[in-house]
Write a structure and sequence with these properties.
The chain is α+β, with helices and mostly antiparallel strands and 159 residues long. The protein has two domains: 56 residues, no CATH class; 94 residues, Sandwich (Immunoglobulin-like). Strands 4-3-6-7 form a four-stranded antiparallel β-sheet. The longest helix is centred in the N-terminal third of the chain and has 24 residues. It is elongated and about 75 Å long.
């Protein structure tokens, strides 16, 4: 409906402009204010305002990619890696590690504290794993015996 009104108004404006050009070429005085004032101008103005508000209201969605442990990768010294970082739902965590000696498991809070993965935990072992964060707190551990207890675990809070 709004697009029809806008199209109709723009057609009227174009017709009025053509009329003014014709009057000008015949040496006639131009009409002021132009004929396309009134309801059409209100529709065009309202549409412009609506589009402007929508553009200002929309926030660009931008997911960031974080390499866990930065250049060192997923290892024993990654426990403090999350400090100072602000994660959002949709961000990607990249776990780079030697797959012959490590892995990554997504666990719940209990599994994080006890350093154990349940049968429902997601496990990764490629050495270049990518995990998309969902909103809330998420926990990651290495399930190789002694590794999680040795500090190979992180907790991430995504807003």
């Amino acid at each position: 409906m709004l697009s029809f009104l806008l199209f109709n108004c723009l057609t009227r404006i174009d017709t009025s402009i053509q009329h003014e050009k014709t009057s000008l070429s015949k040496g006639q005085d131009l009409e002021f204010p132009p004929r396309f004032q009134g309801r059409c101008s209100a529709v065009v103005l309202a549409t412009a305002l609506l589009v402007s508000l929508l553009v200002l209201h929309l926030k660009p969605v931008h997911a960031d990619t974080y390499t866990v442990g930065d250049s060192s990768g997923w290892g024993f010294n990654t426990g403090n890696w999350t400090k100072g970082k602000k994660f959002k739902a949709g961000d990607i965590l990249v776990f780079n590690y030697d797959s012959s000696v490590h892995n990554v498991a997504v666990v719940d809070a209990k599994g994080y504290k006890s350093c154990t993965a349940s049968s429902t935990s997601s496990a990764y072992s490629s050495g270049q794993d990518k995990v998309k964060l969902s909103k809330g707190r998420q926990f990651f551990i290495c399930t190789i015996p002694g590794h999680c207890n040795g500090g190979m675990k992180i907790a991430v809070n995504a807003s």
